[in-house]
Amino acid sequence: MKNEKNPVTDPNRPSGRPRSPHDVPPKTIAIIAIVAALGIVLGMFLIMPHYGPREPRRRSALSHPASMLTVGRETNGMMWIPSGTFIMGSTNGQPDELPLHPVTLDGFWMDKTEVTNEQFQKFVEATGYVTIAERKPDPKDFPGADPAMLVPGSVVFRPPAEDPGLENHYAWWKYVPGANWRHPEGPGSSIEGREKHPAVHVAWEDAAAYAKWAGKRLPTEAEWEYAARGGLHQLPYIWGDVKEVNGRTPANIWQGKFPLENTAQDGFKATAPVGRFPPNGYGLYDMAGNVWEWCADWYRPNAYQSAEKLNPKGPSDSFDPNEPNMPKRVIRGGSYLCSDVYCTGYRPSARMKSAPDTGLSHTGFRCVKNAL
Ligand SMILES: [Ca+2]
User: Fold this and answer.
1) Which of 131, 307, 309, 339 is nearest to 330 (CA)?
2) Ligand 1 centroid to residue 270 C-alpha, Å
């Protein structure tokens, strides 16, 4: 910094040669001083993007500078997420997104994309791992359940024949025997041709097992939200302030009247291959839409009321008032099933929860890793 204050004598200047102030006329010195001052101010913004003022409103992905400022370090398919402080939560979402609170995080690496079928297959081939959806449920874990349902399987989205309204999600979620990550829609379906799609029907425990094998871990909820925002603080979308960019939502979500009409205006009725939509400011793909992503944290609707400020790891146990007896882990990011009328889970602050022993056809994951 010492040399930056006097660029005239800066040995690092492009000429590569220290110069005396007398080498240039006074007017030039004045101009250089002004340019240098502007440079220092700009430099402060460049090196401290997370402590700067709130981003100006009304920016789109095409104009926001974060992608130019922060994307860069990539190693083995992971992007470096620089340390920083952000405001977690939203005043424009659900009650569980409140209160707004500052969170400071150490830097970490994050998978550039959701874990794909071909990546998950490598894990299974290397370890012989059997996902929960492929195991026969233990009747002891499901007292009172119909024995006919105690077969390996998973929960699949199936559009209903008639409009069921938006209250009864059992109208479109079906337990399908034989459905699992290899057979996403059940027997007869396969992942052939979907090698680059995110792996789905992966329960939290399966995702955690993959992460451990890969030498990684699942992100905390705070890490996930911070990374999703990509340097755009307190904006409703990961690409800016408005939902559409050039008339389109730059994410794989649902267009049409949910759950009957899926126009696939974005090109995808269900999962998309990872990386088909523009990355966020940290170079991460599909942090909005495509599939929900497991986080490490237990879910509690009031978790933010007593959240740690430094590297929070979430509450020590779970509570979902809708299903009080069922522990839930946090999922984030929304999916191809998210529409404005039902679920705006693709907002970076939106919180959702799911039972850790249950895979779904719209839920996958990505991993993070600490700095070495
Ligand atoms: Ca879609």
Assistant:
1) 307
2) 6
Task: Name the pTM for this structure.
Answer: 0.81
Q: Which amino acid is at 265?
A: Q
- Residue 121 in 3-state DSSP? helix
Question: b/e map of 252-261 (b: 16 or more CB within 10 Å)?
Answer: bbbbeebbee
Concatenate the DSSP letters of all residues of 82-103 into one string: --EEEEES-SSS-GGG-S-EEE
pLDDT attached to residue 71: 59
Q: How far is the CA of 165 from the centre of ligand 1 (A)?
A: 20
User: How far does residue 214's CA lie from ligand 1's centre (Å)?
Assistant: 30
Structure tokens at 333: 């990011």
Q: Which residue has the higher pLDDT, 341 or 63?
A: 341
E-strand ranges in 89-181 read 101-105, 108-111, 153-157, 173-177
Average the pLDDT over each of 28-37, 125-134, 232-241, 301-310 and give the range with the smallest value: 28-37
Q: How confident is the model at residue 173 (pLDDT cuts 50, 70, 90)?
A: very high
State the helix-helix crossing angle for 117-127 and 204-213, rounded to 10 degrees: 70
Give the phi and the psi of residue 146 in degrees, each rounded to 5.
-65, 120
Ligand 1 center–CA 279 separation, angstroms: 17
Q: String of b and e for 337-353 (b: at least 16 CB within 10 Å)?
A: bbbeeebbbbbbbbbbb
